[in-house]
Amino acid sequence: MYNLDTPIWQLTVGEFIELQKKNVINISNVEPIGIPKRNLVYGISGLAKLLNCSNATAQKVKNSGKIDKAYTQVGRQIVFDVDLVIDLLKKDKNRR
Fold it and tell me: Which Pfam families match (predicted)?
């Protein structure tokens, strides 16, 4: 075995490769965490297709503030979270 206090620069190439192989085996045995898959649509045209409406109507919905929490915009690129858009519009419909 190796002294854990040995600096990496003092290892031989063979020792370093052997350590890497051991770490790869240990990492491959770890169960991956479940990252929820998010449904996303891109742009006003993507929102229009989701809502089955025109681009102008989709822009009005976005500008109304009803779905402000459901999208992220950086410059001209805009990304909508589908599930959150639907939930927010359902909640808004129930308020009326």
Answer: DUF3853 (PF12964)
